[in-house]
Design goal:
By secondary structure, the chain is α/β, with parallel strands linked by helices. Helix content is 46%, strand content 19%. The strands form 2 sheets. Strands 7-6-5-1-2-3-4-8 form an 8-stranded mixed beta sheet. A 7-stranded parallel beta sheet has the order 13-12-11-10-9-14-15, with helices on both faces. Strand 3, helix 3 and strand 4 form a beta-alpha-beta unit.
């Protein structure tokens, strides 16, 4: 295997995916490449991935490397941060059998991950998932004790101008299969007119489908300027000590924002705000909903996510469930009735025609003759 191409690098894969061009090599530092990151690189049509970290650490079966290799994108794995720092943006490099060459000099190497190697690593990761799940549960309990104020009313919910009361709220995260899920939700969105909440990049997901977000919630690290300008309200997720790094970016665009200081993830506070402002139903799209999702997020325990769902559970439903249960109100019987209503006056007009009347009489006479035979 020999690849010669231009290099783009970034410590955050989601940022790199937005600016890398087709045919280039992606240099990342991403332990346990997740599904969303991998899909973004596939969509960018890159040629190769060089990872400073382990693409599959073995803690759990992350699906990112499988997605990359199944799309003919090989990975040169675990090359180390020294190589990451040495290589510069927009350099032309050669990668041959796991060796990284610049200007004729080998500057590093890593394990070449193809589809077969990834399959074997994932198999071993499945064998280890019990250990990782035990660790996850222990961490969840530990963090839940610290963050229990989220469901005990100790967390101050900021004042917002968006009206949630009595409405459906669709919280969109650019997570697993978000495009398929949004596609399936179009009829629901059109008919129910829910409050559209984009969590960081989820706001751009809404724009992709032609919808402007009513609210954007997040730390503003992965949402576009276009989405921020399109939103009716912006909520910046701040640390519990009040620091809000994302606020500066919003203000630099000449926009106003509400600051929400809270532990946990931005999707947690997006749902919590909807619940506290008396939304009728909260529909979660692309959010964390299963064991692998939680392990991929990487935050110890994801306790806040567990606590928030514990509190709002009576009003929360996953978008995939809605897409299965929800059917358009335009039933078949209504379609048939509409067709019949349209045909009826046409038949009346036709029947009044002298020629048509003569034809009907002839057919009637012929039918009588046939019955007598």
């Amino acid at each position: 295997m020999r690849v010669e191409a231009n290099l783009k690098k970034d410590r955050k894969t989601k940022k790199l995916a937005k600016r890398i061009s087709a045919g280039e090599i992606a240099l990342i530092n991403h332990i346990d490449i997740d599904e969303v990151a991998a899909k973004s690189l596939v969509e960018a049509k890159i040629k190769l991935v060089i990872n400073a970290a382990e693409s599959i650490s073995g803690r759990y079966p992350n699906m990112g490397p499988t997605i990359l290799t199944s799309n003919n994108i090989l990975i040169v794995d675990n090359v180390g941060m020294e190589v990451f720092d040495i290589l510069n943006e927009d350099e032309m490099i050669i990668v041959e059998d796991g060796r990284i060459i610049r200007d004729g000099e080998e500057i590093g190497s890593g394990q070449l991950l193809n589809e077969q190697v990834v399959k074997e690593k994932i198999k071993r990761a499945y064998e280890n998932i019990g250990v990782e799940l035990d660790r996850f549960i222990d961490n969840t309990i530990e963090y839940a004790k610290k963050e229990k104020g989220m469901i005990l009313g100790e967390l101050e919910i900021p004042k917002m101008k968006t009206k949630y009361s009595g409405k459906h709220v669709l919280v969109v995260v650019r997570g697993h299969n978000y495009k398929d899920d949004l596609e399936a939700m179009i009829s629901y969105i059109e008919e129910m007119k829910p409050v559209l909440v984009g969590v960081d990049g989820g706001a751009d997901a809404l724009l992709e489908f032609g919808y402007s977000p009513d609210v954007i919630v997040g730390d503003m690290d992965s949402v576009s300027d276009e989405a921020l300008k399109a939103a009716n309200e912006i909520v910046v997720h701040a640390y519990t000590d009040g620091r809000a790094p994302g606020l500066a970016r919003v203000e630099s665009l000449g926009l106003e924002a509400v600051v929400f200081s809270a532990p946990g993830t931005s999707e947690d506070i997006a749902m919590l705000a909807a619940y506290e402002y008396d939304a009728e139903l909260i529909v979660a799209l692309g959010t964390h909903s299963n064991m692998i999702d939680f392990l991929e997020k990487g935050r110890k325990g994801m306790a806040s996510t567990f606590l928030v769902r514990l509190k709002i559970g009576s009003k929360l439903i996953d978008a995939r469930g809605v897409s299965i249960l929800y059917k358009s109100r335009l039933k078949i019987k209504y379609i048939v009735a509409l067709i019949m209503t349209a045909i009826f006056p046409v038949l009346i007009v036709i029947s009044l025609s002298p020629k048509v009347q003569t034809l009907i009489q002839l057919m009637y006479i012929k039918l009588l003759l046939l019955m007598r035979m």
